[in-house]
Design brief:
This protein has 58 residues and is mainly alpha-helical. The protein has one domain. The protein is 60% helix and 0% strand. Helix 1 crosses helix 3. It is globular.
């Protein structure tokens, strides 16, 4: 089955929500479950870095 690609408009809100949840002290697997994304071995340093990039661009 082909992998469904997400658009920027779908990804940005999830990154922002992930940033908020990281700030609340939640762990990456908890955030993935909350955002309904698959944790495929997501490196724990990637979400904070991505959130930091989006925070500076906003």
């Amino acid at each position: 089955m082909p992998q469904k690609r997400r658009t920027v408009d779908q990804i940005v809100p999830k990154l922002r929500k992930a940033d908020v949840e990281l700030g609340k002290g939640k762990k990456v697997p908890e955030i993935c479950k909350l955002l309904e994304v698959v944790d495929r071995g997501v490196r724990t340093d990637v979400l904070p870095l991505a959130a930091e990039v989006w925070r500076h661009e906003a």
